[in-house]
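The records we work with from here on pair a chain with its fold. The integers have meaning only within a learned vocabulary of local backbone shapes. A complete example follows; check for yourself that the lines match position by position.

:::
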Amino acid sequence: MKRVFLAFEVPEPSKAAIFEVQTKLQRAVRSQFVTWIPESRWHITVQFIGDVDDVLLEQIKNVLHDVRPRSIDLQCWCVNVLPMHSSPRNLVLQFADSNGTAFALRDWWAKSIGHLGILADTRAWVPHVTLGRIRAGRQLMHEFVSETHVPKTLIHVRALTLFDSKLTHGGATYHPLSSIDMLA
């Protein structure tokens, strides 16, 4: 069994803008509250799928390769906490999808894997990169979030990738299983 999810990869040219936001937050937030996520683990999750066997994994890969490449641009929008209630666990950089192409792709994906018997996530999708995991002092995060300036940088999505996620004592590790070029 593999624990899989579909995500947009963060292209190298865009990592500097995201790193700048993370650095601002690191200066403002005391380290005992947050475990910072290294850029090697940054991605924009489209859908978490969960544990799948080898047969279902191959079917999911086939659906991935049915995706028609399209240009997807996401704009850095704001820093936020997720989930957005009294006990947030993630400090994130949220993106805007002004022309709706990322949302349209996500909807298509959910319908397509639904035919495989995989239930779509019914929560509202918030495209984001997780910058840190909140450990303690959760109620204090909202003030840092509201004070952090985010440059409205465009992220030109280049790849849509199916990842295998392995949980370890040092955090999750992600291994690409299959990918398509979104700029083809």
